[in-house]
Please model this.
Amino acid sequence: MAQANPLHTRLCEAYGVEYPIVAFAHTKDVIAAVSRAGGIGVLGAAGLDPEEIRSAIHWIRERVGDRPFGVDLLLPASFVEGNAEDLEAQIPDGHRVFVQRLKSEGNIPDPKPLDKPPTSGIGPDMLRRARAQLDVIFEERVPIFASALGSPAFLIERAREAGAPKLWGLIGLPRQARREIEAGVDVVIAAGSDAGGHSGSIGTFSLVPEVMRLARGTNTLVLAAGGVTTGAHVAAALALGADGVWCGTIWQATNESETEPFQREQLLRSNSEDAVQSRASTGKPVRMIRSKWSEAWKQPSAPEPLPMPLQGMLVADIQRAIKDHRVEDWQGVPSGQGVGAITTVKHASQVVLDMAEEALGTLERLRVEPVEA
Amino acid sequence: MTLEAGERDQARIEFVAAHAGRRATCEGGGHAGPAPGGAQVGARQRYVGRVSGRRMVYGDPPWPFLELTDFTERPEGATEERIWCDEANLFFDDD
Model:
């Protein structure tokens, strides 16, 4: 009797894909390559204007046809009344002096002029911006919308009526998962603390089985996220009961990614210990590769980073200057702790195929070589 | 919340007496703030406080927020006295 393909999970069945591998990336070329290779690409588009999102959707759709892909945004889970000027006034002078000192010591030039005024990303601006971005996703009938922060539950009725998109929500705690599952969100992404960027405090191995128990008997699928870099991780996620994996760091080390070459080098030479958490960029712990920037804020003379959003406002210019002028040793690429498994730069499609092959091999090995008590 | 002209009919603020005074946690609360290069970043901050009873519903489909204040726990260094928390991310202690 033929063996069932263990990689053909409920996610594959529901979305018509070959592999239960979801790629989160900010480069549309990666998204198209992954979806064409049999996975699902999800574009991180929170930093894009609505028309930039529309343009990216068209570009991806031209290349993937009917294959599924998604767009990921940040729905603010909360916001504070007030405006940018009120908040600017709360930044202590000592912090401004410290940032100036870093700029001077690091020989960091001024940032280049902006093409357009930045949105504040604060208060009501966040709601307006998210609404405008969401409207594009609905108008363009994108197959999948993923919310990286707030719950997409309030969109369920609109999505059901429109027939698209499927709604995915990223969570870091079991009770967030319960709330989204009860609301009828299509996919919950259980993101462990080993993930790159912002995440919760519970490890993937603890979080995923707990969320699986909450989702049992419902139509909500569960993806495992945080530290997923190889096929062995995919196999482990399936062993935990997940319907697939969501991963981000690995795609930054692909040929298609717009990641700077030096950042790819960072990823290739780093291991799990190098993926440090720092509050220096936003005020919240962000997991990233260690750099002069993250280290500078750990000096005894450094002030404590301010809370969000003050820290982001304080360092916006210097961070932009570091990026504009490619000040390499002051930049740490966002990365999860699975970074140590990245050893070569490949095409994104090859990453998908290699992960799938390794996952199958791992599952096969476990099947024929049971661990003896 | 400061709304611009033409936008006021999109936000409705009401008072929900049944929620007023209840202790609650806003999980995933926090800002999506500006990041290097104009990118937006998310946070999973946590506030614990008391629901004032004010409820703000924004746009269509309705996107509901509850006002949380009297914090007993908030992110390190945070100074705000009240936040609006997405109802889907707000958990009452007595539930």
Remarks:
- Chain B has one domain: 11-30+41-92.
